Amino acid sequence: MKIHLRERFSSHERIHMLIKKKGSINPTMVLGLILALILTYLIAIPVFMLITESVQVHSIDVSYFQQNEGAFTLRYFQRALASKVSSVLFLSPLVNTLVIATCITLCTTIVGYILAWIITRTDIRFKKLFATLAVVPFMLPSWSYAAAWITLFKNRRQAGAPGILEVMGFTIPDALAYGPIPIIICLTMHYFPLAFLMFGNAFQRIDSQMEESAQILGANKLQTAIHILLPVMKPAIMSTILLTFARTVGTFGTPYTLGRPVRFNTLSTSLYFTYQSGEPGVMAVIALAMLIIGALLVALDVFVLREYKRYVTMGGKGQMSRPFTLGPVQLPMNLLVGLFLFVVIVLPLGVLALSTFMVTPGWFVRDNFTLQFWFAEETKVREAVPGLLRDPTLLSVAWTSIKVAGIGALICGTLGTLVGYAVVRLQQYRLSKYLRHLSFLPYLVPGIGFGAAYLVLFATGRGPIPALYGTLLLMILAMSVMYLPLTTRSAISSMAQMGAEPEEAAMILGAGWFTRMFKIVIPIQKRSLFSGILLAFIQGMKELSLVIMLAVPGLEVLTTLSIRYTDNALMQMSNGVILIIAFVTFLLTAVSQRLTKTSLAQGIGG
Prior knowledge:
Helix content is about 65%, strand content about 0%. It is mainly α.
């Protein structure tokens, strides 16, 4: 009688068999099991805890619900979905989120598609310069455009100095100063580089002979664009739509800055306000809704991925790329693209910089210009508030930002490299798929929702793990796990290109596993490892949605300091902090490109 292995061996014995290989322990399998345990605790359990928090009575509600703490309840769902305040807490923010996410995705897709086509498919001049500049907006903090918008268009509805245009005598309506219209415009300017990169790379792979064949058969330019280019660009279009929509759902800074004055809330700002007002159960429900939206987007992405093979544009034959001749409109097109990039890069940064040197932005008289917001021991607009470069708090907060982003990036890069190694070397085991999918999970959780999940898990001590809320370690852990999908995917791609032969040769010569890792694998993968660490560090320096849930008084980073200045109507100080973040981000990006000899827009500009 045949007896299955699962019936003959206990789970402990099966794990022991897995880590054995030819009579000895397989170090790679041990590494994979350790990584699975770590990622399960740092990724899967926080998400699970978020779900349980939405259906358990919290201590703050024990007397009101007349139930014991931890008892099962659906009152939080009822409060969010079917109560007198559900419209304010959840329903209206949900509708607002979906509406602005749809509008931003549509605008981003159109702008990115047109700009990518002009730069990659025409004979426009300055291609490399335009392609490089087109990705700059994505390097800025997401709410930097909102800060520039407020500096220009702010009216007297909000406390503090009025905006530049109002000082110059213009009357700015609320609909233009705050709410959905400026949110859509600002986030479109920030996210269009994503669409540009997607479409630019896709256009580079399209054989121009397809377009020429259509024109030979009598199709005009418009028909060719609609019936040839659009169908073959469908995978890039769908990827752009999904990625932009997912990022927009979780963004916090811009809706908070531009929506709060007119009480226009999205899911991210509603989650933050419920957290501030002491409603952890409702907060968990909102975070769970954001998680569901992310999961649906990933499921849609998987479905679209299955259809990619229908749109193959690069086969075994040679590929030709003949640029479309602009002729007499080449100069106007250059001017138009240059003007657009000026508006989305130079103008916002210029407005932010100019405001930091003016007591009242927009009043262009000599006495109004000042250096106090940078160098004064105490600014005249607010007592006991020193200039940024004289403020010891700024130095402390900047150092905290560097520590959080730096240590988090090191952990993220190292963990991503190890996960990538285990996934590639253990492809024949289910453990490989588990690690691959689990390491990708943070991608589908919006940043503020992921912060809420960590807040729930580490707010109190659980077993040997002490409470970490309000500590630097919690920020570092959240930051290192949040960007793990970036480093893991890079490591998997890089490891897949490295054959097993170098390690096998070292094994023949008697090298142990640690020797092979430090003498062979890591040196070969050092560029990928460095790029992953630097990318995570850059993202961490400008992260707000995640850390806004974890920052406490006395433990702030530059991004939360900027928001605090905004809350206190100190826009010049807030804008100065944004410029400091932008400077550090640009500097790190330049160093990265110099050392790795690559760039985000590499190849798009020719």
